[in-house]
């Protein structure tokens, strides 16, 4: 039921359908916001860094309109996309890879090798779940369209794999831009990648930061906590999460503290509902006046603590860490 668990969350959300509009975050850095359209699966955020020799694109979204917006942005700037970095292998972050590569055949995709395990485990399992609902007329047309598109993406899964495997953290020059390319092992997936640009002091961290809840579906809580500590140790000004708006240092600090408390609570004897209530209270300042987001923060977190973490000895089923 993995595909449907995500689906239920999507149906409960429902935001205005808007094509992603590039927002300047700092000189030479743009956010192309991912979104959630009612009855559809989400797109993750895309972050674009402009270098002297072209564009570096972190994450390529799920839907056709998201990847088209990335291509339109590059065309409007008359700047080629020379590197795609994937923060992690979830389909809301990598599905645009093949089309963007087709448009810029010289570009290289950088990611961890965690997708190799996912192509053998999580993704075919999720496809098998999804196929059961292909002919179910009770699902909205848009939902089935997303399901078919995800199945096609998984079918062609080898095309999502990186050209260059990130197997450690290091400084790399991409498009003539010096970036810290960081590997976070055993975090939101078995291998997350996050970028730090020392010039703009922007950290683009993928799903190591998500709201209203930490999406622990394939997560390893301890490694994830370590990753948040590593991010905190860099002198960033702005963090761009995998979903949602850029954060200040103070806001990221709130998230990091809440995450640490959640991990500690999940391995304690406390009720899952109490862990969830603590999380919701802690991240409330990050959610503004959004009462629905606050309810989701607690509802989703209770599900993650009970069904994802405690059901599998404190980590998700897909977490390979000891
Ligand atoms: Zn995501």
Automatic annotation (TrEMBL):
InterPro entries reported in the protein's UniProt record: Metallo-B-lactamas (IPR001279), NDM-1-like (IPR050855), RibonucZ/Hydroxyglut_hydro (IPR036866)
Residue span, Metallo-beta-lactamase domain: 43-243
Top-rank taxon, per record: Bacteria
Family membership noted in the UniProt record: Belongs to the metallo-beta-lactamase superfamily. Class-B beta-lactamase family.
PANTHER family in the record: ACYL-COENZYME A THIOESTERASE MBLAC2, METALLO-BETA-LACTAMASE DOMAIN-CONTAINING
Protein name: Glyoxylase-like metal-dependent hydrolase (Beta-lactamase superfamily II)
Organism: Caulobacter ginsengisoli
